[in-house]
Amino acid sequence: MSKLDKSDVEKIAFLARLGVDEQDIPEYATNLSNILDMVEQLDSVDTQGVRPMAHPLDAVQRLRADVVTESNDRENLQAHAPEVEQGLYLVPRVVE
Amino acid sequence: MQWEVVIGLEIHVQLSTKSKIFSGASTAYGAEPNTQACAVDLGLPGVLPVFNGEALKKSVMFGLAIGAQINERSVFDRKNYFYPDSPKAYQISQLYYPIVGEGFIDVDLEDGSQKRIGVTRAHMEEDAGKSLHESFHNQTGIDLNRAGTPLLEIVSEPDMRSAKEAVAYMRKIHSIVRYLGVSDGNMQEGSFRCDANVSLRPKGQKEFGTRAELKNINSFRFVEKAINVEIERQMDILESGGTVVQETRLYDADKNETRSMRSKEEANDYRYFPDPDLLPIVISAEEIEAIRSTLPELPDAKCARYMDTLALSEKDAKALTVDRDMADYYEAVQQAIGDAKMAANWILGDVAALNNKHAIEFKECPVSPEQLIGLLKRIQDNTISGKIAKEVFEAMYAGEGDADTIIDKKGLKQITDTGAIEAIIDEIIANNPSQVAEFQSGKDKLIGFFVGQVMKASKGKANPGQVNQLLQTKLKP
Predict the structure, then answer these.
(1) Is residue A87 one of the residues assigned to a domain?
(2) Contact B34 A89 (CB under 8 A)
(3) Which CATH class is domain B418-475?
(4) Which residue among B50, B139, B143 places its CB closest to the CB of A93?
(5) Exposure winner among A94, B270, B310, B332, fewest CB in 10 A?
(6) pLDDT tens-digit series, residues B77-102
């Protein structure tokens, strides 16, 4: 049985940049723990010699020819952005 | 305490495809911001990546060139992190099943010895966009033209023991990708970048010390300097009894120091998982062999051939083969004039010197191989002397036309008419009676003085061999 506590939930939420209400944390902790329990059950299966699955479809990636097919659509695409200047998308200041 | 330096490099090579790794947007450098960033590159809802087969082919070429195992099945994973230059909030990369497995390269060290450096792996991934922090009233401007550009990340084993070894390794990788044509290797434009993992351990200890990662170093010179200042920093900490913190550090070239960017333990939880938008990449053994058959002659093989069949010295052969453009130039000239040594001397000497002086790459050399051939043929047929040829070469470099035009225009044709040379010699002999007397009394070395005088009087145009011969006869008592 894995049991996530409050700090685990807070860390997961932080990594995913999700805002979580304090009052909802116990419920998330229970639900996430249940998911982990289910995954733990899978551990009992012998997977010796089984190749890890990369994709549920039994198919391989098709390759695209190296050809430029897109033309400049900046005006249209930037119409959806909250703020642009000199062709750049503006975002809150990021400081290293 | 005696410390041992341990260095591993991660080199990001931009693959020279026309379109991006997962979209049909152009990868051309220098376009107006965001004019080459389509819906896929922006990570808009509902878009799907479609993989560029050329990125696969170029990655396989590199793997084959370093004798690495090529994985017939490789898988793309999502590397999750939040930064506005990565609009999907993840980078598509390969963690568990990279395209290229273990390989190695042999690098030349300064003392002339060779060292084998292991390559752990190389994987394909997409590049991020660019953040511009200046002048947007406290906001950051984002240009996503570079987002989705195909990269091959080449990860070395921690096999290097000094900054010089690291630079030698980096140069060799640079040379190989340029030979293969899988990347233009342009460091100013960011097509070839390097992160260095540096740590120290007491000499003889097996375990590695704690490492710092130096990010995004974009020139060979800076790699060496950055690693050396980082070694000093860590040594100071360890010598004074402290501990090195595992973190990412940025090299500041102006101050020649490294400084902390962020500490690793909290930030780097990338939660990799296979990207459900992409199926496994599969390449057959036959396809791999077909790619192998397209590999060009690589620098080591070319160098060996120059030594074996062209009888060049190891030093010359190495110098000519580091840069593929230089080697191609050399071969064109050498084949046309049939004199391997003469071609090598000119290209490593006069041509390289002027290119260096003007900071010009070989592929942009203003004197074409055909023009140089035209010049060297005029030395071979005695139209001009080697000395005059240097003058003609400089004029060609300055764009004054081909060799014959310049020789004609400047009247540089060698004087081979015996009568004309004799006339000059007679005058020199008449004007220098005391030297003539000394020569005739056995001071043989003075022949150099007379040859010099004649050459000077003829403005370098007299044939030196003829001058020598005629002088010997005329000066006989």
Answers:
(1) no
(2) yes
(3) mainly alpha
(4) B139
(5) A94
(6) 999 988 899 999 999 999 999 999 99
